[in-house]
Amino acid sequence: MASTGARSILDYLTIKNPDLDYYNEDNATQTTGHSWRAPVYLQPWREFEFDQIMRIFDGKLKTEILRPRTDLPFVQPPLENYQRKDNSEETTKFILSRWTFAMVSRALKAVETTLNPAFFVPSSLANSGSPSTTTESAAKVDERLKERAQPERECKIQQQERNRTKLKKGGGLRPDGAAIILDKPPPDSHAATSSGRTSANKPPLPDNRLPHDIKPGCKWHSSILESYVDKSSGKWLVGKSRSNLAKPIRQIYSYCLEHKARYGCIITSKEILIVRIKPYKTPRKDSKKPSSDASREEDELLQALHDHGLMEYKSIPWSAHGDGKDPTYHKELTVNLTLWILHVLAGNNHKVGWDYLPLHKETLRKRDIPGPALSVASSFTEATNSFSESEQNFLGNLQEADTLHLSFASNRSLNSTGSRKRRNAVPDAFKEEGRPRTRRRVAEEKAGNAANHTRLGIEGVLREHV
What we know:
Blueprint: H1 9-13, E1 21-22, E2 41-44, H2 50-53, H3 60-66, E3 85-86, H4 89-98, H5 100-109, H6 112-115, E4 119-121, H7 140-146, H8 156-166, E5 178-180, E6 191-192, E7 198-199, E8 212-214, H9 225-228, H10 247-259, E9 263-267, E10 271-279, H11 294-308, E11 309-317, H12 335-348, H13 377-383, H14 389-400, H15 408-415, H16 420-423, E12 431-432, E13 435-436, H17 439-465
Parallel strand pairs: 1-3, 2-11, 8-9
Antiparallel strand pairs: 4-5, 6-7, 9-10, 10-11, 12-13
Helix pairs in contact: 5-12, 7-11
């Protein structure tokens, strides 16, 4: 690491990870969750390969990965020898926060306005899941589908399990980390807290698009799946799904169910295990038509994930790295590069579904709020062509002050109401120091201030974790 910076994102995210020392490997006790669900089928995610990934977004992801850059400094100071010892989840989180999350977050920031990624944050900054989809009871979804036909009485064990889960903070499962997008517009109604309840004083927490679970590399490794799953059928071998070392698999699968997220990951100091979930069977192979009731359709999807869920997985070792010479020819996934790609995918399409398009057919979503002013100059000019000269001057001043975070949906709504003469009518209440302020100007100022407030709040937290 003689250089102080990387030439590209690929160069940056394929640098060799620090060598670590592992202790306490005999103690392999895993976290226990009585309400966790296990996938019925597990299969390698064979499509997640370097060549396929380079085709995502019609090659735009590859363009951004290889684009020459000067804003990617390596972690300084590097981890010292005494900081490279891993013997618990606490030490693992320290190593990952100092190295992996710091580098991945910086590389995600570099493509914020081009690839619309999700950003890693502590799980307390993301919604903990809708109460209607929590896994607090193993038969919860079944009950919702059957309640119309024949109500069932809860047994004592089910009541105790439900009561235990209610005692958890937020009423839902809380992963070790989350991924959120930063360009969601501020809501108009009461905000939802992390438990799903509303509050008039707190802003709503965004969806967790990518649940993270962190495990010590000295206590767990995904290689156990080789002896726990039948390779031909993809099903668990008898009794293996309830074993101690299978608990992390049930845990991340339950996190994905809780947040209705298709992607998840288990990060350790020895590997990253990325997962994608969906039902093993597609719906209604008979002549029945899909339900027109969106709520019932979602219930059926969740029921399918409970009854015959499939988890596709891919493991990338901590030791994988590039040669540092010519990243153009590098074709090996690394922990940092894989985590970065998964955040880009989750930032654009994250909802769980019956099935998914091939990776190379993934599409970029439209941003809800434009990015920084300098990055959207062309879009800004195009959107303001119909404004009057005084209005363009006013918005130009906002752009020069780097406070342009407008809601173009609001602008379109204003453009479609009434004539220009009516829009530019200036009530006395809208005049300030002799300078008239039209309704449009007031709306633009409010939209810009609200969007700025939201972005600055979340980005401030991100800077603390980079």
